[in-house]
Structure formats: C-alpha cells, structure tokens
Amino acid sequence: GESVGLHLPTLSVQEGDNSIINCAYSNSASDYFIWYKQESGKGPQFIIDIRSNMDKRQGQRVTVLLNKTVKHLSLQIAATQPGDSAVYFCAEKNGQNFVFGPGTRLSVLP
Amino acid sequence: KAGVTQTPRYLIKTRGQQVTLSCSPISGHRSVSWYQQTPGQGLQFLFEYFSETQRNKGNFPGRFSGRQFSNSRSEMNVSTLELGDSALYLCASSAQPGRASLYEQYFGPGTRLTVT
Known about the structure:
The structure holds two protein chains of two kinds. By secondary structure, chain A is mainly β.
C-alpha cells in the first residue's frame, strides 16, 4: 500500500496495552479537532473529534484529551489490538480549512 | 450506504501532461474536499466545493483546479504536471461544510498519481 510517511515517529505497543498518541497543534484559535486513522492503502478514517470548549471526549476504546494551554492533543487507545496498527493524524480546524499534523505510526506487537 | 469512491486508483503520467481525477461523494453529501498527501509534506488541503461552488482553496498553484457537478460529484485537474506532483490525492465528503458539530469528513481511498 501507499506509504503515508517514510520518517514518521513510530510508537510500538504490546497488544493489550494502552496507547497514547500525541499531537501539538499550531493555532490557539482553532476550535475543532479530529483524529484520523490511516491504514496502508486506504484513505484516512475519522476516529473521534472534540471541540475547543471541551477537555475530554470518549468513544469506543478511544479517548481524546485537549490541553489548550499548551496546544496539545492526545489520543488514548485502550487495550490496543493488532487492527489498530496504522498511521494516526490529528487535524485542527483553522478558519475554514483543516490543517493536519504529520502523523504517528502505531505498531502493535504480538 | 456506499463510501466515497475515487477513480482511477492509480495513474502514471509524464511531465507536462495534464490529468483529471474523479470523486463521487457519499450519497446525500454535498461538500467535497480534495487533499494532496506526500511523504514529505503530509496531508495538505487543496480545495473544497459545496453546491457546485468552490468555498475554500489551499496554497497550491493555479495548475491545480477543480469543479463540482450538480450531482455533487467532483473532479480535480492538474495541468502541466511536474515531478513534484507525484502524490496520493484524496477526496473527502461531508454533509455540510464548516459546522463543527456536524463536520465529519469521510475519505475515499485516493488516487495514486506518479509523474515520470
């Protein structure tokens, strides 16, 4: 499949452990954030979103935390599974456009 | 409900040629956005169309253009191709543009363009 990024930061996690993927965003005025998952050969897939008036939002096995003070976003994946192996991007809504982070490659070890 | 479809999936062109890529959004979605993804630059916004009108445009040269039809299908065109245009071109559809509480973009699988 397509290579999303040849030199992406990589996070290796043991199957069953929790994963934490971090993202620093650039614009303090951004009011909406999304996490995407991109598997090899596929387009990005929406995982979870959060608005700037929230600090935390939970989905199924995933939690997004927003720290506006330091412009930091994190994605927590509980009980990481082999199917979670992918590249994960954060995106911030900056005006009318989305700006994407470089991505982190999550590798799940058996 | 069928997802976003993009055609062709793979394309090889030579420098100086032009190319047209096609995107069919999810049924009922009226907003279509295009992105370029490269290993060096990551995902970069090209433009967004809603109801046949270009709403937003990223920082790409005028060689990159697009349009949207009345059935919400969209095409993007790149003229006078350069080697640096080699990338994965992704299309994303959403029901409405710009409303944070409803804004979910659904991406297609992309078209891999190689310029030689």
